[in-house]
Amino acid sequence: MIKRISRRTLLTSVPALGGLLLTGCSRETFVPPRVRGGLIGAADVLTMSTNRLLLSGQPLAREFSRNEVADPFPTWNQTNPKNAEYQLHASEGFKNWRLPISGLVARPRELSLSEIRGLPARTQITAHVCEQGWSAIGEWTGAPLQRVLEAAGGVTSAARYVVIDTFDGWYEGYDLFEVAHAQTILAYGLNGRDLPRGNGWPLRLRVERQCGYKNLKFLKSIRVVDSMVGIGRGTGGTNSDFGFHWYAGV
Amino acid sequence: MDVNASISEPLRSAAQTSSTAHSYNVRICHWINVVACVYLLWSGVHIFLDFPELYWGNTGYRGYPAAFRLADWGLSWDEAGALGDRRWGRNYHFTVAWVFLINGLIYVVWNLYSKHFRDRMWPAREERTLARVRAELRDHLRWRSRSHANGSYDTLQKASYLILIFVFVPLMILTGVAQSPGFTAAMPWLLDLFGGRQSARTLHTIGTVALVLFVVVHVSEVAAAGFFGKVRSMVIGK
User: Of the candidates B85, B86, B83, which has an alpha carbon nearest to the alpha carbon of residue B75?
Assistant: First the structure.
């Protein structure tokens, strides 16, 4: 009973209210790709909707001063993917590697690391906030994801999510609201130097308004899709396939 | 009308101060709150055990100078991590937080509207004296409260509940929200308010300990006043 009322009410009324404030934003802006059952799913929708309403003006996450930077920046989890393809490209300094941008873009293409470095860059000193509880500040330099997608002609009208795959076998989906944010960048620099291998060389995603696990390392490819159904277990990402929140703003 | 009002007003307030009856709203919200707080505490402990150190400021990670390390108290990082399940903890903490918040808002709005706070919890002028508070404190320390004779709260109890509801709980919510990258992007002043994300996490943890101590005292007082009678009154309202 609780589940039926709360979910139906939330799923319909919150996006409707949001739609008034955010013309052009769709259900994907407020609701995870797959809503979990019961009270947990209702809370997921409440959390994401509340965050997105509060963030509807796309404010920047707090940027800090350079003297607050952690250098060397802490490493966590995977620091050197064993994947043969990764090791081959790493041995060549990723000079022969291309980042494929496929799916629902006007002109699917591949970008070399130097082409990505040639795009308009953004540098931001922001906090990496791990869901475990730790946080550290780094100076990230990279190409805004929006610019990268524009280099492939931009997303089509059917596009709903940008899916990023990594060399260590992870994937995550990001809705277009997150993609459009100015601080959503593909970082190739950290603290004024090339991104260290332990922090995701050659490219790591920065989504500054979500927890660390959405900030994927060792990026391998980008594809734009209309739905997360049929990708992994269909929840929208590796972390949510494992039972963590898909929207990691908390 | 004027006659009725002048008669009923003293009767009404007399009935309220001499009765232990809790309204439906207070009783329902109280027990939902008990369940929510048990879940929040248990899930919070799980989240903490997976990263059993506390820091001050905006930065804190394994190897960074810590304000508190569970390892100093005999439980190593790996042992604590084996006890804590943060996936379970995070899912339940952020679900039950909504139950806690919505239940608390219903309770506060309802009892502001019904004047419960004004009539039964705001200390009257004669209750706001140091001598009175001192006498009450003496009684409480001997597990004897003069208020229990007529069922109304004494000044210390009124002050405790009001501070808990209107100061402490909002601070717990804000120190929780100040750890969220999403909420702090929208409200960066939260980081300034508590001196940083890690400070907020530390204060949230200290607040949890304080809340547990509050519950210990609260339940002890209930026991001193006659446990079954008080629990019965919080369940069936009589």
Answer: B83
The helix/strand/coil state of A17 is helix
Residue B39's region, left for phi above 0, alpha for psi from -120 to 50, else beta, is alpha
Q: How many CB pairs below 8 A link A and B?
A: 110
Question: What local confidence, expressed as pLDDT, does residue B1 receive?
Answer: 38
Answer whether residue A148 is part of any domain: yes
How far apart are alpha carbons A110 and A22 in whole angstroms?
33
The alpha carbon torsion through B64, B65, B68, B72 (nearest 10 deg) reads: 90
Burial label, A190 (beta-carbon count in 10 A; 0-12, 13-18, 19+)? buried
**A235 lies in some domain:** yes
Low-confidence ranges of chain A (pLDDT < 50): 1-5, 15-16, 18-20, 23
- What does the pLDDT look like over B115-136, one tens digit per residue? 989 988 999 888 889 999 898 8
- Cβ A245 vs Cβ B91: under 8 Å: yes
Interface predicted TM-score of the whole assembly (ipTM), two decimals: 0.89
Closest listed residue to residue A48, CA positions, set A3, A19, A79, A14: A14
Residue B87: enclosing H or E segment and its boundaries?
helix B86-113
Residues of A in contact with B98 (CB under 8 A): 42-43, 46-47
Tell me if B200 sits within 8 A of A127, measured CB to CB. Answer: no
Its domain, for residue A213, covers 66-241
> What residues does A136 pair with on adjacent strands?
A128
The pTM score is 0.89
Domain extent listing, chain B: 122-238
Q: What is the DSSP string of A185-200?
A: EEEEEETTEEPPGGGT
Please indicate whether, in this complex, the C-beta atoms of B94 and A244 are within 8 angstroms of each other: no
R_g over Cα of chain B: 21
| The one-letter amino acid at A52 | R
State how many domains chain A has: 2
Q: How far apart are the first and last CA of chain A?
A: 27
The answer to whether B57 touches B66, Cβ cutoff 8 Å, is no
A115 & A225 share domain: yes
Same domain (yes/no): A8, A128: no
Torsional class of A215: left (φ above 0), alpha (ψ -120 to 50), beta (otherwise): beta
CB nearest B181 (choices: A40, A129, A137): A129
Residues in chain A within 8 Å Cβ distance of B184: 61-62
Q: Per-residue pLDDT tens for B59-112?
A: 999 999 999 999 999 999 999 999 999 999 999 999 999 999 999 999 999 999
